[in-house]
Amino acid sequence: MKRALIKLHIAVFLWGFTGVLGRTISLNEGWLVWWRMLLTVVTMWILFGATGKIKKISARQFLTIGGIGVLLALHWLCFYGSIKYANVSIALICLSGSGFVSAILEPLFFGRKINIKELFFGLLTIVGIFMIYQTNLHFSTGFYIGILACFLTVTVSILNKKIVDQYQPESFTLYQLTGGFIGLSVLMPFYNHAFPAITWLPAGREWIWLIVLAWFCTIFTFILYTQALKKLSAFTMNLTLTLEPVYGILLAFVIYHENKDLSNTFYIGFLFILFAVFLQTLSLARKRPGTAAAPLPKWWQFRIKGQK
């Protein structure tokens, strides 16, 4: 149990580190995501192929899974774009609005009533985001892109919920990222024309950071997370996952001193968001803790009710 918890915290810490790497790598958001997906997909085909974890699917199934993967690639594009136009803290704060978006969109997709409690928790995060936005207007462009990233990640999550149980996690992840990479590759000439990049090739140490992003923050965390799933309860997984944006923001403060670029209201707005997370945690704690598998994080979008 203790080893599983350590693995989970390492995985969550590495996910929080992805935002910092997005700022460290000088490539624009388009080429950064393209290289990340290329390194990840090639490595996963080799790794999962060697271990016999790839299951064949039909062309129609690939188009469905891969199409969602394109949306995932666009989410990453917007997430790193938010970092480039604002900073890591703003990008992560925008993603915290996914609870509110989920509370509205999921009932529409699954034909259920809106959960008032979920909607209330989501509204608290929106209040926090709005407070931060109002006093950091110089980051407006980053905010808008970050909100779009939030909508995209919720959309991917909802679409995945409809089909994910039909596939093995390794195969589903591989085909989704492969489809996303193919779609992004088709998009990149147009994107690069609209937003010309100084260079499309990583320079020097940026190769190392891209490998860290692809191998450690994507593939390695996937392995750690799936191992932890077998030992820990869904409640423990959900509770620990709430630390991801906290880790990311603290890392941005320590490494890039982003706290100097943010107004004092940022902390008040952030407290609103943390309060919403706290209330949600209490809500989960009152339910009987089960041992069912918790969701995979936003990189794969395997989510359960209540997870942001």
UniProtKB/TrEMBL annotation:
It comes from the Bacteria. One of its GO terms (cellular component) is membrane. Signal peptide: none annotated. Keywords: Membrane, Transmembrane, Transmembrane helix. Pfam families: EamA. The chain crosses the membrane at residues 32-50, 62-83, 89-110, 119-136, 142-160, 172-191, 207-225, 237-256, 262-279. The keyword Transport does not apply. InterPro entries: EamA_dom, EmrE-like. Residues 6-133, 142-279 form the EamA domain. This is EamA family transporter. It comes from Arachidicoccus ginsenosidivorans.
